Design the sequence.
């Protein structure tokens, strides 16, 4: 079939297998061009198919030479529907990893469930023995609790006061004011239940109890802080409460793993175009302004550059365990530099529909958004008949 992008708001309902494979190859090529990392040998990535999780898996396999298991929630192609981008990404990753002589396995299903945890533990035991790095990179709008069966929904809302700020429709380029009403206490609790640390804690507890977490293992989950302009809707809003909970979980897990010389961290990453971040009001316009400034300064990074730096410098390098006053790794250090933020703030106050393409990198944002789904990628002929049915080599 001819596969073209079909968008609904910030969602693209189609994905291009060859375009996704080219995007994965670009990330692998980047890593192959960097010095090798003396790092983990066996890695479990939960939320491994897109964004930061996929980049973490690529760095593990291609910079550190590790065997990997990826857990993710993606769909195969069916009838006239293409598979999801994460499916195609994972198929391309697995093929490349196996060609490079690494073991790699996929488990597709709900990471929040007990079944998927049990299946993953069995797979680790059978194929890898134990894992020495666990990356937790799940971003989801919903979670069904594995014990109570209750389903929670996360929302992105401020707490206390109504929030109004600029936002952009990144398809039309229209800059407008978004107003978001504050969350109820119930919505705050539900968001924490989805995006907080409970599921990460459950994974580590169960891996440890099953004896498949190696002595001295490291575990990392990802967080975000960002600039003043997004604080009310992000860091001081519902999702920020969930991140507070995730960060508190890291401190607890660090204590739990310390007797065996293990480590748990939250890494605060840079704002980047991913399927999750495009769903947050205000953030796409902020990212467009940020990209403009960071590209001009030669400091721009994507997911793969961020994750390579995280592994090479912070997790396994000379700055090992360099953390802020709250125990967090700060790989958002370049984004948060004073001079970068001052320039972004200046642009922010001037941004309008008329000047958005000139003052910000909205064109770059849009292109990266489509590239997440394998579109707008050099070297791909989008007019050619393409088979949407792609198998994942080692799907369990
Ligand atoms: P993403 O949407 O690209 O990836 C999410 C991953 O989670 C995918 O692999 C998806 O398949 C998986 N997933 C979702 N629900 C699942 C489920 N029920 N079971 C199994 N897998 C499931 O997201 P991302 O932007 O890479 O976010 C990953 C983490 O990084 C999040 O904690 C996010 O808050 C954090 N982060 C993101 C940014 C950013 O700007 N994108 C910045 C800093 C931190």
Sequence:
């Amino acid at each position: 079939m001819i596969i073209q992008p079909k968008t609904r708001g910030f969602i693209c309902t189609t994905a291009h297998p060859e375009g996704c494979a080219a995007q994965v190859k670009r990330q692998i090529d980047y890593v192959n061009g960097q010095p090798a990392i003396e790092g983990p040998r066996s890695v479990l990535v939960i939320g491994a198919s897109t964004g930061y999780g996929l980049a973490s898996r690529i760095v593990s396999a291609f910079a550190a030479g590790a065997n990997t298991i990826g857990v993710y929630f993606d769909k195969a192609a069916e009838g006239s529907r293409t598979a999801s981008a994460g499916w195609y990404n994972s198929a391309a990753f697995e093929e490349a990893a196996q060609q490079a002589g690494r073991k790699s396995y996929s488990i597709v299903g709900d990471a929040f469930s007990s079944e998927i945890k049990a299946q993953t533990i069995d797979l680790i035991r059978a194929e890898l023995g134990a894992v020495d790095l666990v990356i937790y990179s799940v971003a989801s709008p919903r979670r069904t609790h594995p014990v109570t069966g209750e389903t929670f929904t996360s929302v992105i809302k401020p707490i206390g006061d109504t929030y109004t700020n600029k936002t952009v429709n990144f398809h039309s380029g229209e800059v407008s004011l978004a107003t978001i009403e504050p969350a109820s206490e119930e919505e705050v609790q539900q968001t924490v239940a989805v995006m907080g640390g409970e599921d990460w804690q459950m994974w580590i507890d169960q891996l440890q109890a099953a004896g498949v977490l190696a002595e001295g293992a490291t575990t990392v989950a990802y967080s975000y802080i960002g600039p003043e302009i997004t604080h009310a809707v992000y860091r001081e809003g519902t999702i920020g409460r969930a991140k507070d909970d995730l960060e508190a979980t890291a401190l607890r897990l660090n204590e739990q793993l310390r007797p065996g010389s293990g480590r748990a961290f939250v890494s605060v990453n840079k704002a980047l175009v991913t399927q999750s971040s495009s769903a947050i009001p205000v953030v796409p316009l902020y990212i467009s302004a940020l990209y403009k400034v960071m590209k001009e300064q030669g400091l721009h990074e994507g997911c793969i550059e961020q994750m390579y730096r995280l592994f090479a410098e912070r997790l396994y390098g000379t700055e090992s365990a360099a953390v802020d006053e709250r125990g967090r790794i700060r790989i958002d250090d370049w984004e948060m530099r004073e001079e970068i933020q001052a320039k972004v703030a200046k642009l922010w106050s001037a941004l309008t529909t008329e000047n958005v393409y000139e003052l910000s990198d909205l064109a770059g944002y849009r292109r990266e958004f489509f590239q997440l789904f394998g579109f707008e990628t050099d070297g791909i002929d989008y007019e050619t008949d393409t088979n949407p049915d792609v198998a994942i080599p080692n799907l369990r």
Summary: The chain has 13 helices and 13 strands. Residues 10-158+186-280+299-334 form a domain with the Rossmann fold fold (CATH 3.40.50.720).
